[in-house]
Amino acid sequence: MKVVLHICCGVCAGAAAERLAREGRQVSGLFYNPNIYPAREYKKRLEVAKRVAKELGFPLAAAAYTPEAWFEATRSLENEPEGGRRCEVCFRLRLERTYQYMKDCGADAFATTLTISPHKSAAVVNRVGWEVGGDSFLERDFKKQEGFKRAIELAKTWALYRQDYCGCMYSLRDRQLVRNLSPGRPNSKEEAKGGSDHACDC
């Protein structure tokens, strides 16, 4: 079975693609993340995704970076909390594009790396995926069976950049607010380089 894996970032992709391959799936990746802000962060995460695809030997396509589509879809949801309605809209936008790509390239199914993050509800992501693609969506909770731990292991082995915020401007805003409220919090050299143990807070 040929599966298109929506990739939110390279760190998450490693463990998820590895697991699908162990299941006997033929994996191809799609990087579509118009939520990522700013553009330099988008480029950084895309390069990491390309690195992981090369390490694991699967093809990776990158859809056009269209932040304007994301801003339009999430209009009026600026003050939603992380995990709220804005995130669900964001999941849907990305999974709809992945579903269309799956049909265009003749794949059998699609999945997403989003469920590997302990900061994301697999139940919500999987519900949205099923609403978008029905039986062609592979429901997975990649964080299970130590998936998150494996993602971190691979990231450390390959010395990958590990982001410490979801990707959108609102999550960056909230992350910076937390930092500003904790002036005495120590910063390790690894965290300063984006190396906190968020496998992906995408």
Can you walk through the features of this model?
The chain is α/β, with parallel strands linked by helices. It has a single domain (2-192), classed as Rossmann fold. Helix content is 49%, strand content 9%. The chain has helices at 10-22, 39-56, 67-73, 85-104, 122-133, 147-157, 169-181, 189-192, and strands at residues 2-6, 26-31, 60-62, 109-112. A 4-stranded parallel β-sheet has the order 3-2-1-4, sandwiched between helices. α1 (10-22) links the parallel β1 and β2. α1 runs parallel beside α2 (39-56) and α4 (85-104) packs across α5 (122-133). The protein is globular and about 45 Å long. Residues 183-199 have low confidence and may be disordered.
Descriptive terms for the model:
202 residues; alpha/beta; Rossmann fold
Integer average pLDDT: 91
Order of helices and strands: EHEHEHHEHHHH
Structural class: alpha/beta
Total domain count: 1
What's the CATH topology label?
Rossmann fold
CATH homologous superfamily descriptor: HUPs
Which strand order spans the largest sheet, edge to edge or round the barrel? 3-2-1-4
Architecture (CATH level 2) name: 3-Layer(aba) Sandwich
* CATH C-level label: Alpha Beta
The residue fraction in helices comes out at 40-55%
Strand tally is 4
